[in-house]
Amino acid sequence: MPIGGDSGPVRGKLSPRFTVGARQDPGGNGEPSTPLQRIQIIKGWVDAQHVSHEKVFDIAGGENGATVDPSTCATSGPGTASLCAVWEDPAFHPEERAFYYARVLENPVCRWSTELCNSLAVDCSNPGSVPSQYAECCSGIVDKVIQERAWTSPIFYQPERIGVKGRILYGDPGSDRLHLEVTIGRVPPELDVNANPLTLTLSDDDVIYTATLPAGTMVMKSPGKSFAYKDNTGAIGGIRKASLKITRRGTGRLKIDTIATDLSNADQSSHRVTVHVASGTYDQSDDRTWELMPGRLDAQR
Fold first, then answer.
1. Which of 13, 69, 102, 269 lies at a 20 to 30 A Cα distance from 76?
2. Of the options 1.10.12, 2.60.40, 3.30.160, 3.30.60, the CATH number for the domain spanning 162-299
3. Low pLDDT (below 50) residues in the chain
């Protein structure tokens, strides 16, 4: 899933996984190259009492003792040219909305104004020698030392959204198969397969697959909790089996398996695929990268 995306639950009650990598700016054109110090993930969330929170996690690198001398802007201490980490939220709550974004910090350097004052040979130890137009060099209004940083757009976790696992198995022309598992974070009343048709669509730059199960097609196995459909002929959109199970927590799991069918519109490369589920006024989608594997296209956990 790219930065800026929306995620629903895909690993049950487990945290999503975040992979973050960064490389040192090479510098050039008179600009210095500064080593990296750390990667952080900033999490914001709203708890059950509707109170907002924010927390910063160091996930790669960390405090390294690097310093800079404000009088000369000379730097010293260790740093690294690249950082990478895979991180899971140690305090993840699947029922809480949250956002996550990454921040990368360089080692400390002089602020541009400190470099300017040094280049002008301003001597703050002798206030009488400081011209009035350079008085702010000695005022302390701004910090003399900073840490340059870069940050990503956030990924938003929304428990009411859907998460997708699945695969397209490539066969002979017209003999592909689709297996799909859609986790529905919160099943609302309008997602009623007895009263409303259920439409499932996969697409990239083209429609890969779409099918609609008419209202009442899925047989109720447990009142309001479990529904199933089976047809080995695949008369409805090539669907061989379909099921919807709703837990006591209100989370749903929709599964679809097809007979051999034509899924040739799916590009045979790793790329983003959108899965869209609609029933009544319920309308949710999941947009993530599906990975090309030998003989199949996979939406990973």
1. 102
2. 2.60.40
3. none
Taking CA 26 as the corner, what is the angle to CA 24 and CA 29, rounded to the nearest 5 degrees?
145
**Is the distance from CB of 56 to CB of 108 less than 8 angstroms?**
no
* Tokens matching residue 159: 């428990």
Q: What is the pLDDT of residues 233-285, one digit of tens each?
A: 999 999 999 999 998 878 889 999 999 999 999 999 999 999 999 999 999 99
Is 289 in a helix, a strand, or coil? strand
pLDDT of res. 189: 86
pLDDT for res 117 = 93
Cα angle 41, 44, 50 (rounded to 5 degrees) comes to 165
Buried b (16+ CB within 10 A) or exposed e, 40-66: bbbbebeeeeeeeeeeebebbbeeeeb
What lies within 8 Å, CB to CB, of 97 at 6+ separation is 45, 46, 156, 157, 158, 159
Cα 173 from Cα 264, distance rounded (Å) = 8
